[in-house]
Design a protein that fits this description.
By secondary structure, the chain is α+β, with helices and mostly antiparallel strands. The protein is 40% helix and 13% strand. The protein folds into three domains: 12-81, Winged helix-like DNA-binding domain superfamily/Winged helix DNA-binding domain (Arc Repressor Mutant, subunit A); 95-150, no CATH class; 167-257, no CATH class. Strands 1-3-2 form a three-stranded antiparallel beta sheet. A three-stranded antiparallel beta sheet has the order 6-10-7. Helix 1 crosses helix 3, helix 4 crosses helix 8 (165-174) and helix 8 crosses helix 10 (211-222). It starts with 11 loop residues before the first helix and ends with a strand.
């Protein structure tokens, strides 16, 4: 799912449900499959291996002699939001995979993404060209599920509006940034690197945040989780994507975690 091609059957809810069953104790594969996809339903589903393998590659479970065990602390799967925060800390491990490459290209596209087809399934050719990795409609539908779940944007019908608010907050939490401390923007970016490389260019020479990251930072400030400041005469000045509704905050020098 994350290492290679995306599949629509490996959705977050199935992975979470699998982990909650395994949390109760190690279980053999066929028994776990029966709990997830009981034969009496006779629905002919063949989804189990897809989401089991996704859980395995994310490090949520381990398999030994067909015995499946939980591979993380139980607090990681306390709820599905905790699992999301954990997954967001590990995405850099899959930086050559289809999900990572499509997400990175999506943010690099910036506001120009709104000029494209509003059905995400039709953007396979665009992202094939941008990533040099074959991307079809099935992969884009899968990407839509996970991009929404991991907090890279908000779903509007079949389109994802780029806004990294949720992902950025997870990354801030994973980086253990101190509350009530004012960080220069470069300090902030360095602290969340490399987890944030999927949406923030690791080459920070231009000191500019793209459309989706700018939306996320502004949303975090609007809900009181961070505070952005522009202190005069500071050399470490970064630029947010300019929006009419936020005409006075296009440049920032510091970010505080509230």
């Amino acid at each position: 799912m994350f290492k290679d091609k995306m599949v629509t059957t490996a959705i977050p809810e199935r992975i979470f449900a699998l982990c909650k069953i395994v949390e109760k104790g190690p279980i053999v594969s066929y028994e776990l499959k029966e709990k997830m996809e009981p034969e009496y339903l006779e629905n002919g589903s063949v989804y189990f291996n897809d989401y089991k393998n996704a859980a395995l590659e994310l490090g949520l479970i381990s398999i030994s002699d067909d015995l499946i065990s939980l591979a993380v602390d139980a607090k990681v799967i306390k709820n599905i939001e905790c699992m999301r925060t954990y997954i967001n800390s590990r995405l850099e491990m899959f930086n050559t995979g289809q999900f990572y490459l499509v997400t990175k290209a999506y943010f690099e596209k910036g506001s120009d993404i709104f000029k494209e087809d509003k059905n995400i399934a039709n953007l396979g050719p665009l992202f094939t060209q941008m990533t040099n990795y074959p991307v079809d409609a099935v992969a884009m539908r899968s990407w839509r599920f996970w991009a929404q779940f991991l907090g890279f944007g908000y779903l509007q019908e079949m389109f994802i509006i780029p806004n990294a608010c949720v992902f950025l907050w997870d990354t801030i939490c994973n980086a253990s940034l101190e509350k009530e401390r004012m960080y220069s923007v470069s300090e902030f970016v360095n602290a969340i690197t490399p987890m944030s490389n999927i949406i923030i260019d690791s080459d920070t020479a231009n000191r500019t945040f793209n459309y989706g990251v700018s939306n996320g930072l502004r949303a975090l400030q609007d809900v009181g989780k961070i505070k952005m400041d522009h202190i005069l005469d500071q050399k470490d000045t970064w630029t947010l994507y300019q929006l009419k509704a936020y005409s006075n905050d296009s440049t920032i020098t510091h970010i505080s975690i509230m």
